Amino acid sequence: MFYVSEQRNIIDIYHPAAQEYHSLLNSIGEFCEEEILHGAKRIDQEEIFPADNLVETTKRGLFALPFPEEYNGGGKPFPVYIAALEMLAKACANTALHVSIQGMICEGIRLFGDDRMKMRLLKEKGLVEGRSLIAFALTEPCCGSDAKSIQSRAVQMGDRYVLNGSKMMITNPGESDYALVFAATRRGISAFVVSTAEHGFKVMKTMPKLGFRGNQLAAIQLEECEVAREDLLGEEGRGLEYAKHILNVGRITIAAIGTGIAQAAFEKSVNYSKKRKAFGESISQFQLVQEKLSDMATQISAARLLTYYAGFLKDQGKDIALAASQAKLFSSESAIKVCDHAIQIHGGYGYTDAYDVHRHWRDARLLTIGEGTSEMLKLLIAHLALKDE
Ligand SMILES: Cc1cc2nc3c(=O)[nH]c(=O)nc-3n(C[C@H](O)[C@H](O)[C@H](O)COP(=O)(O)OP(=O)(O)OC[C@H]3O[C@@H](n4cnc5c(N)ncnc54)[C@H](O)[C@@H]3O)c2cc1C
């Protein structure tokens, strides 16, 4: 079964009367297994943006799951969304990545946008449902972790802002209808929802990369790019504060993707180890292989618990900075270890394309970098620990 028993047990902890969520998650699991999984290898190998999968994902209501019904959201608890994302990532991490990015931006608009922006973008333009797509554009050639030093500028001219500058390593700007763009204004860094069709918003050449090859990675050039005053998210000068909230939500979803990727690699390893024979026995009988399987299972369980717990805190309206950072740090680092073990258990075949195992490792490798590197998350976790003292 794609919806594994441990996911079910955790959902039960947070929602004791969760029968309706189990049947929903079971059906999402079947959808992931029957309709998404089979295309994942091809999406990676041929570097295909998973547009068809995203359309199906929209139809199934996965993008919309945790958002309020007034924006055509599914109104479901965040851990249910996390469980769905985990399964989507297990089937095809390339498909899960855009759902995750879009989810965190929608949450930012929900939290900080005015009523008009929320109705227009979340509901009418269908961002909550995934009917239109949005990219997140913070990183610049000069700065990633050091986001406060970004150099793009937005100058107000009457009822418009004019943006100039460049963004680097942005996921799917050319596939999206909008981008949430951060730029410095008179009062500090601000965030703008920019239509990618806007004159002056130019998507540059795609950058080849190690994993997540179905997602485009590109630079953006902003040249006298005009946006209306109403496309400013919230208040001028509060962009970095908003980015922190948005990224906290994103970190929980990235942790879910890490867990899903690791689960896929683990299940392949269990199956392979039972079938592969050496010295007259299945390799699953060798204790050194069992040690790896044991480590993998334990890392995944711990990552899953931290991740769903952070999702639960979010639903409770609690501060998620610590839990989201811990979940993302642990899940992403674990996913790399688990996928590395998976390659080793598959022996030489793990290094080839035969069982499509190295895709999981290549995808997992991004997760300790994007949306806060492991180093930056460790600094943040230590900062929060020292503050509490
Ligand atoms: C596939 C992919 C997709 C991406 N998608 C997006 C996207 O959609 N939108 C977006 O805005 N960005 C995106 N990024 C950019 C990503 O968020 C940045 O790469 C990341 O934040 C790190 O920034 P950097 O690459 O500039 O590294 P740097 O910030 O230059 O860091 C380089 C190294 O130094 C370390 N370091 C930096 N400062 C410290 C410190 N104070 N203490 C200790 N170590 C430190 C870092 O941890 C890292 O190991 C993406 C990147 C990739 C690879």
Automatic annotation (TrEMBL):
Span of domain Acyl-CoA dehydrogenase/oxidase C-terminal: 237-383
Pfam annotation, one family: Acyl-CoA_dh_M
UniProt keyword annotation of Flavoprotein present: yes
This enzyme's EC code(s): 1.3.8.1
Keywords: FAD, Flavoprotein, Oxidoreductase
Cofactor(s) required for function per UniProt: FAD
Residues annotated as domain Acyl-CoA dehydrogenase/oxidase N-terminal: 20-123
Residue ranges of every copy of the Acyl-CoA oxidase/dehydrogenase middle domain listed in the record: 135-225
Range of residues in the leader sequence: none
GO molecular-function terms, A-Z: flavin adenine dinucleotide binding; short-chain fatty acyl-CoA dehydrogenase activity
Record InterPro entries: Acyl-CoA_Oxase/DH_mid-dom, Acyl-CoA_Oxase/DH_mid-dom_sf, AcylCo_DH-like_C, AcylCo_DH/oxidase_C, AcylCoA_DH/ox_N, AcylCoA_DH/ox_N_sf, AcylCoA_DH/oxidase_NM_dom_sf
Family of the protein in this entry: Belongs to the acyl-CoA dehydrogenase family.
Listed name of the protein: Butyryl-CoA dehydrogenase
